[in-house]
Write a structure and sequence with these properties.
alpha+beta, Cell Cycle, Spindle Assembly Checkpoint Protein, Chain A, 6-stranded antiparallel sheet, about 25% strand, globular
Length: about 250
Amino acid sequence: MPLAKPIRADRRKRHAANARDRVVKLKGDIFHSTAILCEFLYYAFNTILGLREVYPKHDFKWDKRYDIYLPMLIDPDLKGYLTKVTTQLKPWLETKSVTRIVLALVSKETRETVERWQFDIHTTAEQPPQPEVAAPQTAPSAAAAADQAQFQPVARSDHDMQAEALQIFRQIFSSVTFMPALEPDQCLFTILSYVNKSAEIPAGWNKSDPYIISATADQVPIHGLTTSVYKLVPTVTYCANQAQQTEEEAEE
């Protein structure tokens, strides 16, 4: 009987230590996963703006990342803007406050959205996303809904995540070959973040139009990126009749 108390005490200490280890590991996973996603999105934004010629080709340089060369903006103001956006994503990701990021390309002439690059962010089953407060969203695709329902936490190596990122960029490069061509300097861009009601909104961020494509649109799903905490599901929606309109104008 005298051994009972020390045994219980040791067991409690061991369980407490295990609990602390789990908390430390979870926090480490969240911080690492957040860094992976923010870095990926920074490169993705640059790549899309470069490949879609939102700015002239001479405004980009090509850097190797994820074992592929990607177009990167040179202008310090534009680089600073993208850095500001992805930096603000960090606290939102760490608190599970953001569920979607959108890069919208808008025609300078008509002010209509011509492309919508959407990145849905799903969390593990233990920590589901909360209701959003941002502008109305389009209904999720069946594939995206299935991904969210089936996603379970899994250990992911940096090598695995780098390989998935490479696959995404290859698919982005492939996608732009069949999408309607955009003239250089034809579009503006904006970045939207969908966050829930509890999220802290810093100065300079405001409620926004969802920049939905009003014309007939096609949607292309893109391979996802999975970390130990998040699953990023990209899709691109583009104005399907844009090429036809361009051809008609040329004929006139």
